[in-house]
Amino acid sequence: MIYLDNNATTQPLPEVVEAMLPFLREQYANPSSVHQFGQAVRFAVEQAREKVAALLHAAPREVVFTSGGTESINLAIRGTLALEPKKRQVVTTAVEHSAVLRVMERLTEEGYRVDYVGVDGEGRVEMAEWAEKVTSETALVSLLHANNETGVVQDVQALAAVAASQGAIVHIDAVQSAGKLPIPVGEWPAHLVSIAAHKFHGSKGAGALYVRRRTRIAGMILGGSQERELRGGTENVAGIVGMGVAADAANRRTNDSVSQVTSLRDALERGILERIPGTAVNGAGAERIGNTANISFEGLEAEALLILLSEQGVCASAGSACSSGSLEPSHVLNAMGLPQSRTHGALRFSLSRFNTPDEIDRILALLPGLVSRLTALTH
């Protein structure tokens, strides 16, 4: 199998699995228990918090553990608005992940005014429109750092600064960028940042929300006093410990190891463009995370090509895993203004440290024949 769907989820590192196992076997105590058994587990949770904080260049107390990116996003947005009864306007972009967009749909139903800012043809947020829509009446803005479909990286420093200058709370969705790009929360004018362990070789079921000191936010899951009463419920200790190990590994990665993934991605894009007519890389003119290639095969249906690739043991996707099963073209590519002939035939290849040059060569040898076969069937 060749796995190129790492923006959906990543393979846990061997050291992550090894670190988690004791907390699924012998170290099973509740970290809220006052006895020594429980406090030993509490110590492991707090060690993981320190490692996640280091990845974000934050203080450990600013890290709240959650079940993943979606919960972190919901806590950030709804937790902020619960304590802001006067301002009823929220601003986001047209290319956000579904975890943000679904919350925005619900807010609209509840009487909030939600403004969506567009992007240019490369997927970059239109700064002039952003500055126009973010006003002193804006309660909160939610902004994706790196797009999960195209890999396009937004200038969060500049965009967040505009919002902060208007007194808005700034939430950054860094689920796709954490572990791939620096997340210097101390340098960003941001109050809240969401991440998920399984996007950077941790396990599913563990995530975190950075909450800048003195940021007012209400808990959404009520129960015990865990996570400073911002997230009730017994912690997923194994997942949290694994997240700490994954964060530490990501923090220690060298520029050379990151550039190796980018080089493989570039080789894949270059090979496809050279060998297959009617192909184009979406977002190629913008800054992108180095592991993501979104490529349109003009005139073809993405789902059909994905099935043929899967039959050959190649895992890719037609966009976000959270919208799989939908035959609708990507809302991200639509927002970029791409024609239907490109949006319907767009595939996302997302790489990781586990991919090899041989795998890229194998895909480049396979794809032209699969595309020719599909073209003959549909024309």
Architecture overview:
- The protein contains 12 helices and 12 strands.
- It is an alpha/beta fold and 379 residues long.
- It has a 7-stranded mixed beta sheet with strand order 2-8-7-6-5-3-4, with helices on both faces. The protein has a 3-stranded antiparallel beta sheet with strand order 9-10-12. The protein has a two-stranded parallel ribbon with strand order 1-11.
- Strand 3, helix 4 and strand 4 form a beta-alpha-beta unit.
- Helix 1 packs antiparallel against helix 7, helix 8 runs parallel beside helix 12 and helix 9 crosses helix 12.
- The protein is globular.
- The two termini are 30 Å apart.
- The mean pLDDT is 95.
Gist of the model:
The chain is an alpha/beta fold. 39% of the residues lie in helices and 14% in strands. The two termini are 30 Å apart.
* Largest sheet descriptor: 7 strands, mixed
Structural class: alpha/beta
User: Which regions have little confidence, pLDDT < 50, spanning 5+ residues?
Assistant: none
Total helical elements: 12
User: So what's the oligomer here?
Assistant: single chain
